[in-house]
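Sanity check

After download, print the first record. It should look like this:
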Amino acid sequence: MHQFVKLLPFILLFFVYGVILTGPLLAPHDPFVSSLEEALQAPGAGHFLGTDANGRDILSLILYSARISLAVSFCVVLCCLFLGTTLGFIAGFFGGPLDRLFLFTADVFQAFPGILLAITVAAFIPQSLINMILLLSFVGWVSYARLIRAGVLSLKSRDYILAATVLGLPKSRILWRHVFPNLAGPVIVQASFGMAGVILAESALSFLGLGLPAGTPSLGKLMDQGVNLLLVAPYVSIFPGAVIMFFVLSFNFVGDSLREKFDV
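Expected structure tokens:
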């Protein structure tokens, strides 16, 4: 029973991923077709989660929006991993001026709250899916880089690393064969928590009108539309908000489980 409880977040997450990835096949209606005659219909047989102010099916919108949110979060985490791992390795392993430059740059980025920095930059760039991915990667790489740097600084003083250095092994071989495998666990845990953070950030920017371009389904946009309808049609905001909450909780539970697994 205890093992099942530990696996439950993974099972739920994989199930939701399967539903989201097959969203176009499961969506009962076309989310891009508006019908003012069906606007703000309550959840029922024709529309299981109701319709929004434009008459679009909310379930179909959520399925399409969730696919975009997951795609954005996955791409952002990959970009942050690549950039953060590269810079963290260079700063931690080589040290000296490169490490000092890295620390100064990281301190500058972390001097601003991440969401405020994202809002500030988003106000000056065109709205597009690619720009959203680049923006969130630009804001989020620091935590990955600091994690890698701290791990490299801890590992490079170990006896087996010193022995490999004395034997004259190339630094690239030492990094990829001896250092990086020992950092894989913490990096995976950080990536799991990062997925939840990116989904929240993308939804927040879309809620403020600074996220994805007009016409692109977004959970944040759905919640923004429902703000003025809370007394009339609260389900317009409640269902997208529940999906965001489920994603964040699932990734956080998965991150906690992975942290327990890799914590030695």
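If your output differs, re-run the checksum step. Summary of this record's structure: The chain has one domain: 72-262.
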